[in-house]
Write a structure and sequence with these properties.
203 residues, alpha+beta, seven-stranded antiparallel sheet, two-stranded antiparallel ribbon, 5 helices
Length: 203
């Protein structure tokens, strides 16, 4: 049963998705990234609403996630191992892209979920009050960064609403600890999500 506190938190989370990005930072040269502090301040003033509509729909059925980054993009991202389907049980086919030639070591996971809409993480059955949700646009699709805030960030997920009931989840997680802050983790997952969405649209 939802408590009054949970309802309030869900309303605030939903409101945050309506907030437009109002600034940029520069954690990585040449890459414009969301001003997280600005979004958080603005989201407190927003009224509750729904996710903005998609401008188009892209289905993920039958797509191999390991094909969603090109060889030049893998080089740019410093991925040095062959992309591999993750054997760990997940909600959809997942490809792991490893950066483990020299430290810091980290990995990206690109997962294609054909059984859940992004709304599930914002107000639905996957909502967790302990998680932070930050709105953004990925290639014209509504999206959120999703993570547990803390002094030692563990990862960042970028979830993209591709089609009704279908979501792309890109996770960036460090294997070498205490190197990346939360902003950097999310910047990196957003970057991969943007590339993967563009390549999926081109299929």
């Amino acid at each position: 049963m939802s408590t009054t506190s949970d309802v309030a938190v869900r309303a605030a989370a939903t409101a945050a998705v309506l907030v437009a990005l109002t600034g940029c930072s520069a954690n990585e040269p040449g890459i414009a990234t969301p001003d997280r502090a600005g979004m958080t301040a603005a989201s407190r003033q927003a009224e509750a609403g729904q996710l903005p509509p998609r401008t188009e729909e892209v289905r993920v059925d039958g797509v191999d996630p390991c094909t969603l980054l090109t060889e030049p993009q893998l080089d740019e991202l410093k991925v040095n191992s062959k992309p591999r389907l993750d054997a760990e049980p997940r909600e959809g086919p997942t490809c792991a892209f490893d950066v483990d030639l020299t430290e810091p070591y980290y990995s990206y996971a690109v997962e294609l979920i054909a059984t859940a809409d992004l709304e599930a993480w914002v107000t639905g059955d996957r909502f967790k009050s302990s998680m932070t949700r930050e709105p953004l646009d990925v290639g014209g699709f509504p999206a959120i960064d999703h993570y547990r805030a803390g002094e030692a960030p563990a990862d960042c997920e970028t979830l993209v609403a591709l089609a009704p009931g279908q979501t792309m989840r890109v996770q960036m997680y460090p294997l070498t600890q205490k190197v990346f802050d939360q902003g950097q983790l999310c910047d990196m997952s957003e970057r991969v999500a943007t590339l993967a969405v563009a390549n999926l649209q081109a299929k």
